[in-house]
Protein 1
Amino acid sequence: MAGPASTIVTELEAQTDLAKALIARAQARGAFLIWRAQATRAARLLVRSGRVEEAVVAQGSGHGVHAVLDDGRSAFGSRDDFGPEPSAALLDATIDAASSGGALGVAGGSFAPDAPSTARDLPAGIAAFDALDLDAASARLVALERELTSDLPGVTTTLAFQAVLEVWRILRSDGADVLFAVPRCVLRASLSSSGDARHTVGASLADPSPRMFDDPAAVATFLARARAAGSLAAALPDAPTHPAGSFPLVIDYALAKGLAHEAFGHASEADGFRSSVLARDGRFRSGDTVGPAHVSVIDEPVQGDFAWQPYSATGSPRRRATIVDHGRLRDALTDAWSARGAGTALTGADRAESFRSAPLPRMSNIRIELDDPLPAPGAFEDYSAERVRDLLGDAGIFSRHRRVAFLSGYGGGQVNPPTGDFVFNCKAIYALGPDEVVLHKPAIFSGSMFGALGAVREGFGPLKLDAIGSCGKWGQSVPSSGGSHYFLVLDPDPGVRLGGR
Amino acid sequence: MEVAALLTALRTARPQGRAIAGFNFDITTIRRLVIGTKDRETGGPHAPVSLSDSLNARFKLVWDDGRVSRGVMERRAIESDPHPVLASALAAAYDDPDARTILGPSAFPDVPTLDPGTVKLAEGAIDPFVPRLEAIRARLADHGLKTWSGSMQAAHGNTRLLTSAGLDVEAEGTSTSWSVSFDGESVGAGKSGRRLEPFEEFALRLDRLVTLVLALRGTAPARPGGVVPVLFHPGVVEDYVLAVLLHNLDGEQVAHGTGAFTRAQFGSGFASLRPDLTLRTDPLVPFASGAYRFTREGVPAAPVTLIDRGRLATPMLDLKYARRLGLPPNAPPAAMDTLFFEGALAIDEPAALGAAAGGVLVLGVLGVHTQDFTSGDFSLSAPQSLAIGANGFEGRLRGTVSGNLFELLRSDDLAFVRFPGETTPGLLVRCRFDAQ
């Protein structure tokens, strides 16, 4: 349902004539054009020690032109204004660059888009970004920090709030014309222990509305996460390190997002199929078994989510990609340049960090989903390490494994898709046994994607998909998100290891 | 760059009746050309030849009620109508007495940062890239390598700093960089600077990378986990060691007590790290990537010693945190080639490999951004490591490397290692390595 639009929507709606003139100019020179414009409005607040330490506002807009010649060679140009003359000069220079690429050995591509879409997708409430009351937000942030500081003596608290509205418009020579807005706001807390050995632990909550402060449920969730992070920061300096090796593991939904994202998501991005471990001779290994039959990995945009994007950066509808369907590879993350060569369906997965960036296949919201998960009543935030131990005990996990390492909280990850090597980090490790819960310092979790997915046994609780992050690839950073059931149990696998000391 | 409209607006704007009492505008124009290669495909659709043209400004405003605004302004606002952005900035104004300082004119050093050849490259005269691309492809064919990825770029930019205190200074510069990785290995080669390095140096870098990639093809015999000699390649030192040090030397972290170092440690004379360890920055190295004349606030570029023989000398300080900590502001490092990490004991690579027999050379690590930089605890995946034996490399090891960085930087076992062609040293330490 669309409500009143932001002024930056209007700005892009006003560029129709410019885009069409550029498309006509490209056509006259024998080039197909993908025109992509972006306008952003952003604000960031930082509060420390009861005062605002930083407030930054930014507005920007510009456009990129991706010109494709008949032989498939292409080039990309970008500029941060919509002036007709500089834009025409930019297009001419871009077509010249594509034409003269032979000296560099520039490769051609095959652009095979789906039927052109004409669409607008503007979420309700985006006009609120035009009327963001930063004074009120600052006051609220200061109050939240005061509340956390009184609850967490000896812990230094930093709170940040970021509100970003991105609006995109994409026109193509074949008539495609889509316009969509992506609102995202996030509250972050960074909590540091004091003393000689300091540890810092973070917490966050995302919401599409800049008025998330007015939602008591959102604020309560954020405070619960921040308190847990602060308590952890205070306890970590005295925690021992966990031994290195392969262990039975429990990971929470945020870490499961990390596993899905790092281990399978990146390797299924079709721009890397000449070297990805999930491809053979440039084609996705659809049908190959890569995990147990009760496990699936799915990527799709989720409305209102931190990484939501309804259309691709080349104007195709973004579709669900069931990367692993009950243990077998099925869909890749493809765009109009790569789907045909990859031998899989077009999923409209290309995203761009900004109008200055050439798009790449990327994830949106990725999850690990299990058939028949076991129940985990209540809210995720209610689960302390002790309660997770009880959950495992009630399900009989300790009869299979005398001790389990519980990895809690996602600390970021990385992957090398050609080899399948992935890593991610947690915020803490708890050694869980029938009668014990022992906190350990975090350690890197690494290994091979196939070992990790093959090790997944049980899942507990409903799907929870609000784990957020920032995904870096090829010099571009885009928001990412995802999750899984509250908790997943992984059996030990020699190809999956915890670091340690 | 055209700033008349901006200056008029700064003088006349009265959003909600407020006037601008002070301002600092750091305005930058950049023209850039990038040529990417993904999996042997140069300039393909996912890494096309790219041209970009940008103009933006970072600004600080001090309003007549003493409040401060910070923000970013882009071309159209700067050149034609800044008023809407100024009004938005007022809506985000906040009270911060430490952030009100605006600098006036000063004596700024001259440092060469402009290369005419690179200006032409950024404008599209790409001929100098051609033999370099051919050299990469030749190594692929000569050594049986399957694929490569990387990029080459050139940029030409101009920065103008304008303040309400009468400062109006400009700097023009170029930049160029390249990076290459072979066969999907995340370890790679590359160089950034203000101009292209000589072709011979480029070729030597490529050859050193080829040697490492070929050495990674063999698999080393399994080893038990334990504390062993670990030689961190300069790339790892830059990605992790220096990143942690710079994070904790940031004035903001020091002022708020969220970093590893406290205000009291700076200038105390107490050796927080090993007494021969020095970290200094020099932004006046001609044609260095990190060379510059002035900071975005108008502080003249000058060498700074951050850690002096193990003692914390000064944090990196912008105007705000300099005032808050009662120390003079300084010029932060802008790139690794102007950051000098030094120790009394510096050995060359062959000597280090001899001293590290039984250990590993760690060429690259995964997961740096997942570490807690405050504690210095690290637990990193090192899938690109080479086992070091009595007679050299024994093949690849995959494993995890772990320890505490600050303990390593206080250890008598630490040695600085000179690697050919690298301004950053490698580090030879003893820490835990657990092979898979």
Protein 2
Amino acid sequence: MLTIAETSFSSRLFLGTGKFASSKIMEQAISASGTEMVTVALRRVDLSNPNDDIMSVIDPRKYTFLPNTSGARNSDEAIRLARLARAASGNRWLKLEVTPDPRTLLPDPVETLVATEKLVKEGFIVLPYMNADPILALRLQDAGAAAVMPLGSPIGTNQGILTAFQIEIIIEQAGVPVVVDAGIGAPSHAAQAMEMGADAVLVNTAIAIARDPIAMAGAFAKAVEAGRTAYEAGMGAKSTNAQASSPLQGISEDLSFL
Amino acid sequence: MPDFFSWQNQLERCSESDVMHALECAKPGIGELSALLSPAADRFLPQLAARSRDLTLQRFGRTTQLYAPVYLSNFCTNRCVYCGFSATNKIDRKALTLDEAEKEAEILYRRGFRHILLVSGESDAIIDVSYLENLAKRLCSRFASLSIEVQPLSTEAYRRLFAAGITAVAVYQETYDRELYKELHPAGKKRDYDFRLDTPDRAAAVGMREIGIGALLGLSNWRAEGMALGYHLNSLRRRFWQTNFSVSFPRLRPAAGAFAPLTEVNLKNLSQLIFALRIFDPDVGLIVSTREEAAFRDGMLGLGPTRYSAGSSTAPGGYGNPELNGEQFSVGDHRSLPEMAAVIRSKGFDPVCKDWDASFQESTLS
Ligand code: SF4
């Protein structure tokens, strides 16, 4: 069971809702994925309209709705969007995205931290999207982030977890859940993140653009579960100490003082 | 903090294959720590030592830090049944004046020490925050770092001391076994288990550079104490990622009051505990004091510990006057700093006397 801000989730797969061919397919993919957390770009939805294409599909009793601030170029824009969203829906959850460079959509660490500090003070449950920077993860955690969402590789690239080395450090240090976000292009990438000990993954493009998004959503669900099970079962690590050709060399004599 | 007895159960359930897994594991967690501390791991001591040695070398290199304690006072309002300073014991009581304390520190300075640990019995009426603050102000320009091991203090007190130049706080839980803790601390402020347990949090919260924790070995099941230490360390690390942490492994020594250890912790046990904690947390400072005898300390060099005390006296005023009584416990290794440094060098390690500088600490610059 995963807990974020006192809310429990039995599925560790979070879904993004952009890029689907239709809201009908999106709905079926959401359902096939077994997810309980769905993120939606605030700029895409009309929160106050229950008949909105996307909103009408996300039953608030079934899913935790995680509006995101994608498109915000700085903390002020993100904060403004967040306040509007809360005023319209009463929802305190927020995936904070501050991405000033529209080409790479890489998150701005400084503005993200500033916005996190302010939004947490205003009572938001903030899950910041971030570069896989271990110190930044700790700074965001100190600022009150409810989880951190480091990227595996730039958004939409399907390149998988290129930042594994840093994500491992983040996972090791974090006191809040770590959700690997962005770049997850195949179920094996999601499984890898889970095997590394990530608490959850967020997937969008890989499912939305698959030939059969519904089948792909199911495949991701299984991969996430497999990866998590492997992690909990305690995998034999790629040994770091095996290079020492004979690690016990001389050690018995060394211990003769005992 | 999970219940002490649940640790014991967890330890009993570990198998040899759990131990082998823990030895190979790249990022050991509490589960792996329990395997390394379990009875099943006893026969893997050489493997634990090898892993611990490799990690220590990787993270700390060929160095060993040296420090010495300055005992400021042996007055204590507590009655810890195992301690020579207990209020019930009839010993010569002495508290150093600020001048006397400065003199003791000066002796250590001349002997080459740059890191000192200010220690006292727990008595607010004798050694209070102002005393420590004033002493720190007198000493901080001479010494690279000043640590304290005194009664648990308030956050505000730690803030004042940090501003005065104290950079590290050591506070040992003695035993994480809550029931036993009650029995061993029959009177005095120290009875409050939780206030003591939260002390590292208060000290870390004001920015102290290093926090030392530890359990007194010989009171309860050492394996379970090791689990609790690992858990405590882990939870502190999660909250205070800018703080350095260290663990000490004081074994009960003969002392006034003639308390007999409740459980035996032999040298193999002590080594296993040190190796297990090193494997569990490759970056934690591990301290072996002069409570232990020379042969053990020499043997452990490079295998896990990173810091040794040397040339210690545990009686207030004991450096200026070695004839003094009133020590907290009797020392097991009497070698001086130069002697210790020579041994460390002969083993291919660098004895480090200065590993900090006051200019890091803005507040101490005037
Ligand atoms: S262990 Fe500390 S608190 Fe207890 S009697 Fe000794 S000096 Fe006092």
Protein 3
Amino acid sequence: MPRGYRTGGGDGDLVEVLVDRLVDYKANVRRCAADELGATVAELLSGDSAVVVPAGAPQAWLSAYQGKILRDGEPRPLAVAELDAPGVAVLTGCAVAIAQTGTLILDAGPDQGRRALTLVPDHHVCVVHSGQIAAGVPEALGRLADPTRPLTLVSGPSATSDIELNRVEGVHGPRRLDVIVVL
Amino acid sequence: MTGTGNIVARLPFPVAARKELADTQLRANLRRATHTIRDKRLRVVGEVPDWEELRVAGAAIKDDVLARLPELLERFEAAATAAGATVHWARDAAEACTVVTDLVRRSGATEVVKVKSMATQEIGLNEALEAAGIEAVETDLAELIVQLAGDTPSHILVPAIHYNRTQIRDIFDRNGLLSDRARTDDPPALAEAARRHLRAKFLSAKVGISGANFAVADSGTLVVVESEGNGRMCLTLPETLISVVGIEKIVPTFRDLEVFLQLLPRSSTGERMNPYTSLWTGVTPGDGPQTVHIVLVDNGRTDTLADEVGRQALRCIRCSACLNVCPVYERVGGHAYGSVYPGPIGAILSPQMSGGGANRTLPYASTLCGACFDACPVRINIPEVLVHLRQIGKHPPAERAAMRALSWTMRDRRRYAAALRLARRSAAPVRWLAGDRIRHLPWPLSAWTRFRDAPLPAPESFRDWWTRAHG
Ligand code: SF4
């Protein structure tokens, strides 16, 4: 098979490229140091009365958040109605991010949870560690631990251009996507 | 196996095209859409230094698939089954519809939510479900608009591009989607109305129906590429998921997706990556549908595979790049092609998948300008296949007559000059009324201008001016 295309590396500062592409997709991006993460999360979630988190999300992420915390699976999986309630946001990590395309890959890992969590709430906050950023698509897919897990690739908030080609954010998925890049 | 269902055009292309050409709103909308998307596409393709290498790899992977399709399909079936899915095979549209209808019946549901999918359109699934008393709700915004209007899509990617915002507002209003205060035609307000309407459906649906953009033979994984999140809703929330997949959607390994996930979004919507891509392999306990069915559909694909020149059409990843660069499509729109597959790819795919009848006129729906080949991310040589199909097929009578009239005029310099002069003279009063473009030239050039906006001929021809000035 001819595979003369790029399969890794290149393209300068991966954080800069990722941020540039995410912003281009109308995602809101914050950069912070590891010890500022709790405060950054709390600030981004300040308008939401409750936040849904997967069972394996680190406690430290929510150290400064004042609202209600709903942990999926503890003691039982959250009902879709709970995810759909007004003012509910969701906070997750990701498996890998793709700099060149501004994409977050969720693979249902412990800090990402099942697919419905990042689908139904209207606001998604995603934590990306700088070491999780791959240059391009081939490198990113190659980094996945198990490709048969359910995978969701997210590039910006939900969008449609169906009405006279006007881009409208959020028809069905989260309308607001905040990405925190931890340096 | 010869294809059936909505792959077959009801009317010959020239007859269908005549009706669409009379619609100036359609022509203006299409022009704007195709130009916008193709400009975006050029920009994002331009930023990929290895684009040509990706195209070559994409074409080679698909050719490899076509060369050993039976083996890969069996491998896919084994892997998907091992992962907890149930695989069904359907030889044509009717069989595929029966399989899906039975599965829905068995689930007890009377309503299903659908992700936009060419394969389900191809087999006429919505009509079949309706006949069985099951309502299929299209959840992609554009498909919803088209469905509520009782219409059919006019573009693979932007199916409702032939409607403007006021028309969409009226369609929503007629169907009770708009509350009294929200009778605006503002796109975000209309999208919000659709969101409210569909969310209720998503949260209650027991069965979701999708297509797939890719199916990985090694792992049994299916891939759906989308923008709105309605796909994720249908793939995640219902208890049962039924995916209808054309057998040519196979790629051998997970790694091959690294090529297509780069080629598809940039070619299709002109984005670096589409907002959402979902990949799933059979059943995952505690996450998503716990009953998963996959219906593999032939419907004329093995027929197409039998033709050595024509089979490259099966490489198609339905990006619609060829539609957006096609001068014929830009003027007539998707409906004129009759079949679910419009534009240049439709002109070669539909007649191959279903040989007879009106589909025979489709290979003539082209100027052979070659723009589609340059745009195609998997390097399908569409002009080559068009010429090939014209050679092996019978020429439709209208085409033959038009070409004969044109060659009679062109063969003789005097006849040609006289025709042009006549055109010029009859154009003089029109110029004053219509600016610099005219609708009708007198016969025999009327064959050209009936459906084209031709520039007005210069008041004096170069030849006449030369004779006068240099006589
Ligand atoms: S033929 Fe090529 S350009 Fe046209 S839709 Fe298919 S893949 Fe895209």
